[in-house]
């Protein structure tokens, strides 16, 4: 049976349910606004105003029109399953901190207007998945990072002002920086290389191990005495040898 450490990627129902529940919540809020003609944009982030802080929690669930909502929904339906499947242990932390700190960054950097939408969270997810794959150097995650570049590499331009009217480039930039910070701070021990010691191997026999032979039956360190050194005669002959010194005459 394969150990979980050997296979850190485990498919669970949450891989499907998490993005579906999140996106369904976005569409439910949008339906409520249309059905009851109740605009909730005032629950968005209004930068550097105390009353605008509530938007840090509520703004990801608010969208100005159906195109904005549809674009963010598609991105979340792609990124959230990736996050949950490849980074199961860190997924909820990334999701929660991505919402909070991207919203806080928007509140600090944004223009004096209401900022709504899940774009900040999306940029946090893209940034985290890309950078974390590079930092771990795990071959599957590195490949995932390059896939993210292919899918969302072009979105990097929307972190700069005056690229497109009506978008919160401040929220995009804040989300990107938050994702990078989370990739640096959060540890992923499930991708570290396992260390195998001799005593962990299934065929380990303590009676044959040189180190274990230093312990007696009670577990006391009692190394066996060193064998006495035996001086061997490397030249032995029964023949008589006569040496004669021939000195030079003066």
UniProtKB/TrEMBL annotation:
Keyword field: Hydrolase, Membrane, Protease, Transmembrane, Transmembrane helix
Broad class of the protein's primary localization: membrane
Domain of life of the source: Bacteria
Localization, UniProt: Membrane
Coiled coil segments of this chain: none
Biological process terms in GO annotation: proteolysis
Domain named Peptidase S54 rhomboid: residues: 56-186
Entry's transmembrane regions: 12-32, 92-110, 116-134, 141-160, 166-186
Gene Ontology cellular component terms for the protein in this record: membrane
UniProt KW Phosphoprotein keyword: no
SUPFAM superfamilies assigned: Rhomboid-like
Membrane topology: Multi-pass membrane protein
Pfam families, A to Z: Rhomboid
One Gene Ontology molecular-function label: serine-type endopeptidase activity
Protein name (record): Membrane associated rhomboid family serine protease
Species: Flavobacterium aquaticum
